[in-house]
Amino acid sequence: MAAPATPLLKDELDIVIPTIRNLDFLEMWRPFFQPYHLIIVQDGDPSKTIKVPDGFDYELYNRNDINKILGPRANCISFKDSACRCFGYMVSKKKYIFTIDDDCFVAKDPSGKDINALEQHIKNLLSPSTPFFFNTLYDPYREGVDFVRGYPFSLREGVPTAVSHGLWLNIPDYDAPTQLVKPLERNTRYVDAVLTIPKGTLFPMCGMNLAFDRDLIGPAMYFGLMGDGQPIGRYDDMWAGWCTKVICDHLGLGVKTGLPYIYHSKASNPFTNLRKEYKGIFWQEEIIPFFQSVVLPKECTTVQQCYRELAKMVKAKLSKVDGYFDKLAEAMITWIEAWDELNPPKGKLPNGNAK
């Protein structure tokens, strides 16, 4: 199936892909991705050459590039973990980001038609969210749907959508214990729904099929310290999701989940996953109540201000759980400093002088 004649947001969206291998998977996405600019973040050995199929417009960053661009601040970007993808968010100059893993293939809808995941994410982001009052017919802005009887008219305008969280057919995004007890479970259920996650409700954000408005929420999309040299892995997207959601709630922004689906092609090793997740499985029992109790000061009116405040709270409240959270809180500040250096406020040059 061909992409629309003029692809939506062609010059306003970057596709960010973290990888350690050749990107043959892009061939199947060609009809949908080729018009867009790709940012490839190469993890692992920087001397390895990653092959990208011909015809794609892309830039590729490896660890050497990250070190060169960020200098001493490069230590906030994870190594040997897909959390490195957030470097791509930082160097992008576009308003929107779509990020996808290299084991995610084009899914088919129940009629057998290829799903253009990117197009659906864009639709989600360009229509409002309804975090303050739940619409029982789900997203009221989709074609053929509306607000149901009893929905307050004063809330029907909705709020800007900051995040669009997509789902997966085939291999579900399970943690290691669930993988171990259900090794053959596959998700075959296609639910044709998009819904706004209500204000005050956290969710487990998966980074393998995700889009967001970089201008609205980008600085909060830090995927933490994971992988090489860290006591935890596979919580990078979860951490970003919890931070993002409490900041969206504070700033009056929306987060949607549901469509689009991708086809998640391969299960990762549950024993390796257990080793990475082991501490997180215990820690999350304290991390979740922490995020549920976060109240950001009303003086915090930008994502950066909120994120700095959140980093202080992480240091004050979570460092008693493990010393790792001291390091993470410091990395959160380093990330914001690096973000601001590469993305100066409009009207300012990187050196801080006015244009």
UniProtKB/TrEMBL annotation:
Its main location: Golgi. GO terms for molecular function: UDP-arabinopyranose mutase activity. Signal peptide: none annotated. One of its GO terms (cellular component) is cytosol. The record marks 149, 156 as: Required for activity. It comes from the Eukaryota. Keywords: Cell wall biogenesis/degradation, Glycoprotein, Golgi apparatus, Isomerase. One of its GO terms (biological process) is cell wall organization. Glycans are attached at residue 149. The keyword Cell cycle does not apply. It is found in: Golgi apparatus. Its EC number is 5.4.99.30. InterPro entries: Nucleotide-diphossugar_trans, RGP, RGP_fam. It catalyses: UDP-beta-L-arabinofuranose = UDP-beta-L-arabinopyranose. Belongs to the RGP family. This is UDP-arabinopyranose mutase.
